Amino acid sequence: MKNQRSTEQSAQIKKRRLPALEHWHFVAFFLMLFDLAAVAGSYLLALWLRYDCHYTEIPREDLSAWLKFTPIYAAVSIAVFWALHLYQSIWKFASFNELKRISLASLLLGTVHTVLITLIHQRMPISYYVIGIIIQFLLVLCVRFAYRFVLLERNKRKSSLQKATASRVMLIGAGAAGQLILRDLHNAKEVNERVCCIIDDDRNKWGRFIDGVPVVGGKDDILLNVEKYRIEKIFLAIPSASAIQRRDILDICKETSCELKNLPGIYEFVTGNVTAKAMRDVAVEDLLGRDTVKVDMDEIYDFISGKTILVTGGGGSIGSELCRQIAKHAPKQLIVFDIYENNAHAIGLELKDKHPDLNLKVLIGSVRDSNRINQVFRAYKPEIVYHAAAHKHVPLMEDSPCESIKNNAIGTYKTAYAAMANGCHRFVLISTDKAVNPTNIMGASKRLCEMIIQSFDRKIRDKRAHELAPLHMHTADADVAMSNMSYGKEEPKTEFVAVRFGNVLGSNGSVIPRFKEQIARGGPVTVTHPDIIRYFMTIPEAASLVLQAGTYANGGEIFVLDMGAPVKIDSLARNLIRLSGLQPDVDIQISYTGLRAGEKLYEEKLMSEEGMRTTPNHLIHIGCPIPFDTDVFLEQLQALMHAAYDGQEDRIRDLVATVVPTYHPAGEHGSEHKGEAFEQQMKIVAQKDTDGILIAK
User: Fold this and answer.
1) Residue 165's pLDDT is what?
2) Element (H, E) at 430
3) If pLDDT is split at 50, 70 and 90, which confidence band does 695 have?
4) Average pLDDT of the segment spanning 295-302
5) Is the confidence at residue 693, as pLDDT, over 90?
6) pTM of the model
7) What is the distance between the alpha carbons of residues 82 and 78, in angstroms, rounded to a whole number?
8) Which H, E and C letters describe 624-636, residue by residue?
9) Mean pLDDT across the stretch 274-278?
10) Is the dihedral of CA 685, 688, 690, 696 positive or negative?
């Protein structure tokens, strides 16, 4: 048995040692045979042509010299061809590189032939050398490129059969990017699309052809040629176009029923990623006509690098994007804090995959839990805090106003106090344009957050930080957790600022995903009012501006991000329908449902009383704070906290309206007895204080 096994093993080893003959080996063998005939026959043919195509007129000494030298020359030729890899190339993909090597081989061998036959035998006619080199070059070249030519012809026949079913494409842009897209579509087997015409505003290109495709006119000719060529898809391939130029072109294209695709930007062109697959669906932000926000990344890097940073609400739309951008700037440690574990887990995994060296900590907890938030600050000592944790859905907060106050206002106060007590350098609040002249409880709660930040800043500047107290609703403090929040003897130096901006495209609760779901179901698309307008910005833009605003802070500012021109929500809905290849009010109906509770027709970025100062970034402005009595405000905030935790939903709006004078509750929520309601609430708070419920002072 052992001998049999050893015999089998040795046989297998021998088989492994013997090189297996592949298909290309046979191809190389037949190419060698052809080359032997070609190098021999080319110079015989040269003699025949030299003597007027009469074989009998060739001198015997010339014919004898050719005959004796041919075996030597054939051997040298095969060696040169092998050395230049003319037998190992995959001729299915033959290109200019192969042509260059064949040319080099022909010139080298022509020189060898001329020198050796002259030295060994005799001098031949000059035409013999020249014609022989040319004929040999053509024979060697043709046999190798013939296979590629046959394949191209076969593919042309297949493509001509596919043209009947291929999608008809209009390409906008006859520049370098457009040419690359055109050739990629011609060569891509998996893409069943055919470019029928090209649009370009360069009049010099009109009436001319690129790869057989006509340039038919400028952007004003789009609609005419869509109909003429029965276009089904439009590809926009102008990466260098500005946002306004791209919007103008897309405004024309969206009037057709064609599917629209866009080459995102100049980055794809610079990196060489200009292919049909790089084209993406046209997004709503492409129609906003606003150039991408640019920030000074060096300033952000210098500010963030080497620091411990905490992002509350780090799993949310803005919070997670802040984490992504912070992770790129080499922080000492990044702490993601969120109450929703799924979002926190998801952003944690993403950051670990993209930044394996990042010192990352993902923590679960609520900003309303003063004990928990203080534990986090005490354990990790963050130097910069981006406070993005908040309830933000206007209709939901209208139905649960006490939760809005508890989470947004009181949660902000507790987080700010923990930051101050633990030596945090800078605290950046993420606010909203809904805080300006709010008509809903969510906007009013965010205005309260801004007032809290301003109160902390003022107390610290006046060296009266000891007058700030940790708010909580505990009936006892057995573990002395609240007392431990005291910052000690050293005066705190935390800088508190707020950043205010409008709606963010694609964020959780954004109108865009809602519209897309309704379109996918076949409609109707619901819009609250035909005249409602909002400011929009993309998530990465908003996050980058928040980071840069944080670098400008000196304390107490409310930074206001320039959101560009406002957008009508009705127009946004109609554009989304058109981008889906459908017609509004024909394929998809638009239904107007009326303004929801607390909703305004338009949002403001600044209160009328606030002035405006500029920063080095023209898209970031500073609103001058509206003065208010900080001491009175802090007392009112305690009363608000008790009302919220007691669930006094029938009175909470009146109380908030007393604290936030610019808050005007919509509809039935307004009251003419705001002052009376607040006086009654202060009496309740005083009574609870004497009954033993702790209010830290």
Assistant:
1) 67
2) strand 426-432
3) very low
4) 79
5) no
6) 0.65
7) 6
8) CCCCCCHHHHHHH
9) 49
10) negative
Q: Which residue has the tokens 């579509």?
A: 185
Task: Please measure the distance between the N-terminal and C-terminal CA atoms of the chain and give it in whole angstroms.
Answer: 93
Q: How many CA atoms lie within 13 A of 498 on its CB side?
A: 27
pLDDT tens, residue by residue, 92-131: 666 677 778 888 888 888 888 888 888 888 888 888 888 8
Q: Which of 506, 494, 393 has the alpha carbon at shortest distance from 445?
A: 393
User: CB of 572 within 8 A of CB of 511?
Assistant: yes
Give kind and range of the element (H or E) at residue 322: helix 317-327
Which tokens go with 456?
A: 């902390």
Q: CA nearest 468: which of 634, 346, 584? A: 634
Judged by DSSP in three states, 589 sits in: coil
**What's the pLDDT at 270?**
36
Question: Under DSSP, is residue 299 helix (H, G, I), strand (E, B) or coil?
Answer: helix
Closest CA to 541 of 342, 345, 291: 291
Secondary element (H or E) of residue 607: none
Summarize the chain as % helix, strand, coil (round to 5). Answer: 50, 15, 35
pLDDT at residue 351, rounded to an integer: 94
CATH 3.40.50.720 fits 165-282, yes or no: yes
With a cut of 90, say whether residue 378 has pLDDT above it.
Answer: yes
Q: Give start and end residues of each alpha helix (H) in 355-391.
A: 370-380
Q: State the chain's mean pLDDT as an integer.
A: 79
Residues in the chain: 697
Q: What secondary structure letter does DSSP report for 234?
A: E
Residue 573 neighbours by CB under 8 Å, 6+ apart: 515, 525, 527, 584, 590
- Position with higher pLDDT, 274 vs 694: 274
Judging by beta carbons within 10 Å of its beta carbon (0-12, 13-18, 19+), is residue 357 exposed, middle or buried? exposed
Q: Which helix (H) or strand (E) element contains residue 606?
A: none
Q: Which fold has domain 297-505+537-563+604-623?
A: Rossmann fold (3.40.50)
Short-list 81, 79, 67, CA closest to 120: 67
pLDDT given at position 7: 57
Taking a C-beta distance cutoff of 8 angstroms, is the pair 201, 248 a contact? no
Q: Please tell me the distance from the alpha carbon of residue 379 to that of residue 292, in angstroms, as a whole number.
A: 39
Longest CA span, the chain: 133
Q: Label residue 193 left, alpha or beta by phi (over 0 means left) and psi (-120 to 50 means alpha).
A: beta
Q: Is the dihedral of CA 683, 642, 398, 500 positive or negative?
A: positive
- For residues 603, 607, 613, 616, the Cα torsion angle rounded to the nearest 10 degrees is -20
Range from 421-425, 668-672, 673-677 carrying the lowest mean pLDDT: 668-672
Give the least confident one: 39-43, 94-98, 534-538, 655-659: 94-98
Residue 192 reports pLDDT greater than 80: no
- What single DSSP character describes residue 588? B
Q: Do the domains 165-282 and 297-505+537-563+604-623 sit in the same CATH topology, yes or no?
A: yes
Q: In the chain, where are the structural domains located? A: 23-159, 165-282, 297-505+537-563+604-623, 630-690
- Tokens of residue 310, six digits: 């905490």
